[in-house]
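We emphasize that the prediction below concerns an isolated chain of 152 residues; any contacts that depend on oligomerization or on bound cofactors are therefore not represented. The input was used exactly as deposited, without trimming of termini.
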Amino acid sequence: MELSENYKSIENYLPQRKPFLFVDRIVSFHGDEKSLFTEFFFHEDLWFFKGHFPDRPVVPGVILQEAIFQSGAILMNFINQFKNQSADTQDHRVGVISRVYDVKYKKMILPQTLVGIEIVLKDQMGEGFLFSGKMKSEGKTVLTLEFMATLA
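Result of the prediction step, given as a token string:
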């Protein structure tokens, strides 16, 4: 699905703001498959690189997970809008993570790296969503996980 301008403004779908916003671009949304693709570029001047680690900066694993969670929150909003068939109806509740499963780190991410994130809805139980998430960089898997989230 080609995204309209309504969908391109990330701040319409997430309560996070810089410096804690880890989605730069929504690449695509597939309503039938309930999947979303996003991107984020880890600029070398991001705040956490100063302390993690000063002589050999690397993106903290919790930040990589947070980027996936934020993409999942966007997908929750898209699914609700797709269900309601309206790009103008926004759900302003916040996505809250309740469980994280099967976290597998496969590659470190260094400054000046672009990552792609794929989120797929595996199941929905009322207000609860079960997602799988995958982060890639340069065609290689960086992180995979599954997580539960709800709208609060």
